[in-house]
Structure formats: structure tokens, C-alpha cells
Design a protein that fits this description.
This protein has about 140 residues and is mostly beta strands. It contains one helix and seven strands, in the order H-E-E-E-E-E-E-E. About 10% of the residues lie in helices and about 30% in strands. The strands form two sheets. The protein has a four-stranded antiparallel β-sheet, with no helix packed on it. A three-stranded antiparallel β-sheet has the order 3-4-5, with no helix packed on it.
């Protein structure tokens, strides 16, 4: 039977064997940037941030110098179990910070945030001055 030789598979196996041989620590976490969608309607903006696996207690939202600052952390599983060895880790854990410039058109006093099904939603209402308004034309 012929087997296709894949050098990348051999290099991965060699790397794994060296890690095992020398017991090099694998990184426990890496910083990441959660994905964000921003939508606008006539009343304001909606910011939706993917935050699966992040407790609402781990999310902090603040207004600082005209910026909306969202920060938090996602924690991975504990590697304290001696009977458990990680074979593959693709999920990213760690701390994050996202900053968004608000501009003058946002009413910062009325910003609201909610968290459901791993998605953080921040409502950023427009100030009354920035909302479009209709100006009637007077006939004389």
C-alpha cells in the first residue's frame, strides 16, 4: 500500500515529540480581539460583540475621554489535572480591550448594555441635537 508523505505532518509530530521530551510549557492563553458589528438607525447605534464563554461579570464597559472602552477576559480550563493532557487547543483565551471613538453625536448618559447567548449588545443613542429633524417651510 502506498502512503502519501506529508512533510508538514512529520514536522508537527517531531515538534510534539520535542515538546514532550523537553517538557516545554505550552502557552496557557493568548490575547484576542472579539468580533464586533455596528449598526445604525435613526435613534442611535447598536454594537454587537461576540463574547462566548465570557461571563458577564468579566466584562467592563466605561466611557473615557470620548471613547467607549470594553474590556474583559475569557478563561480556559484549568490544567491542574495530572490525568488530563491537552492534545489540541484552538480556542483563544486571555484578556481583551476594544476602544470605539464616540464623537459628539452620542448621548453618553443613556448608553445601555445587555448580554445574551454569548453576545454583548451596547445601545448608543444619538443625542437630540444629532438626530435628523424635519423643518417645515412656512408660507407667508
Amino acid at each position: 500500500m502506498l502512503t502519501l508523505w506529508r512533510p508538514e505532518r512529520e514536522m508537527a509530530r517531531l515538534s510534539q515529540n520535542l515538546d514532550t521530551l523537553f517538557q516545554w510549557p505550552t502557552p496557557q492563553r493568548a490575547d484576542f480581539v472579539p468580533a464586533v458589528d455596528i449598526e445604525e438607525d435613526k435613534t442611535g447605534y447598536l454594537l454587537h460583540m461576540d463574547a462566548p464563554g465570557i461571563s458577564e461579570k468579566e466584562i467592563e464597559i466605561e466611557i473615557n475621554a470620548g471613547e467607549l472602552v470594553i474590556s474583559g477576559a475569557r478563561h480556559g480550563s484549568k490544567d491542574n489535572d495530572e490525568d488530563l493532557s491537552v492534545l489540541k487547543r484552538e480556542r483563544i483565551f486571555g484578556k481583551f480591550t476594544r476602544r470605539f471613538h464616540l464623537g459628539d453625536g452620542i448621548d453618553a448618559q443613556k448608553i445601555e448594555a445587555s448580554y445574551k447567548n454569548g453576545v454583548l449588545t451596547v445601545k448608543l443613542p444619538k443625542s437630540e441635537q444629532s438626530k435628523p429633524r424635519h423643518i417645515p417651510v412656512a408660507v407667508h
